[in-house]
Amino acid sequence: MTNRTDDEYPEAPSDRTHVKRYHWLARYDQETVKAILDATPLAHVGCMMNGVPFVTPTFFWREGDRVYWHGSSAGRLFKALEHQDICLTVSLLDGLVIARSAYNFNCNFRSVMLLGRAELISDEAVKAEKLRNFVDGLIPGEWERLRPVHAKEIEATAVASLSIAEASCKVRTGPPLDDEEDYAFPSWAGVIPIRYQVLPPEPDPRNLPDVPMPEDILKFRLG
Amino acid sequence: MTNRTDDEYPEAPSDRTHVKRYHWLARYDQETVKAILDATPLAHVGCMMNGVPFVTPTFFWREGDRVYWHGSSAGRLFKALEHQDICLTVSLLDGLVIARSAYNFNCNFRSVMLLGRAELISDEAVKAEKLRNFVDGLIPGEWERLRPVHAKEIEATAVASLSIAEASCKVRTGPPLDDEEDYAFPSWAGVIPIRYQVLPPEPDPRNLPDVPMPEDILKFRLG
User: Fold this and answer.
1) Which residues of A are annotated as a binding site for FAD?
2) Phi, psi for A3 (deg, rounded to 5)
3) How confident is the model over A61-112, as pLDDT tens digits?
4) What is the Cα–Cα distance from B59 to B41, expressed in whole angstroms?
5) Could you tell me whether strands B167-172 and B106-116 are parallel, antiparallel, or unpaired per DSSP bridges?
6) What's domain A21-217's superfamily in CATH?
7) Is the pTM of this model over 0.80?
8) Cross-chain Cβ contact B21/A72 below 8 Å
9) Residues placed in the known binding site of B for FAD
């Protein structure tokens, strides 16, 4: 299933990030971690609440060696996540891999799993700066074009951050990998590529007539 | 932020599925639950392992009032999930919503969160039947075209299922919703639609020369 010998497998940053299932797809280098984190704003955060490991989809962004995400200061997620280790997972589906046997069906994908203790930002000015980075990371220069933020809006917003040090990635690319004897079996095999498509922006019907769309809006990308 | 009064909000199937954040986007009806589950094969499963709420991306499928997913019989996830309540979340990102203020930035999305105790299927024949439904659900008739499954492959595969009864959905569509006074602010607002794109299939270079691509391969859809 792989061309690497056991000695060639990279080392995980911790025992609990050590990938066991499909371990030949594992990567732990920070370059791969950052590339996957930067490819999409969508993450899924795992956090124990009321005895259940809730999985919450959320937008996030990266600055240096930390990821950030925001929500309501009054929300139960942000109250719960300071008191436990959490998991933040980012995954991108890149294709359906059609093999010659059901057992070797697969998908092409990129995923990263971050583990650790999140920190909440309490300084209001720092929160505002982080939110600006989030907005400008989606659309360059957008923060300056918006109605200036109110202090009560920053107060109502919680911003959490998590180190990207304790991370594991899985990356699968390429054609199916069948059992050698199955390559003689007469079944069509291949990959159906999947990607995100960003469509042309749809203006709000309530836009003012003399406000053109900034060209930066067209710079939004994901995938 | 909504046109509904409190009396008009639908009722959650349990206290722990009751949506509090952006509760005006919540839906609990099984029709919406099924529509979201049927739109993508990608889920994120939350399960406590080694004291951390791990979030694992996985393919899944729905049959009636249950969802199913598979993995390795030897894997730690499938050993852990029978002994605790878990969460299975499915989310689809439909657009970036650009408002006139950072506070009202949003995304259009569909998500469903299922809570409950998963069950592992132990009967090998039932497992094989479920895996057939999974493969044929992705590409109609594909199971029959594949190299027949080996008993040891079924044994090595774990199949879990979870009821969709304890579910909550969130759905956001449409243009930004700004504070009424902000509609006079001269900032461009609108939606950048996002969707999955399925690209033309790429044949495996090792395909046999006389095996054409079945037309059913083109029926794979998601989104």
Assistant:
1) 16, 20-21, 57, 59, 70, 76, 111, 170
2) -100, -5
3) 999 999 999 999 888 889 899 889 999 999 999 999 999 999 999 999 999 9
4) 5
5) antiparallel
6) Electron Transport, Fmn-binding Protein; Chain A (2.30.110.10)
7) yes
8) yes
9) 16, 20-21, 57, 59, 70, 76, 111, 170
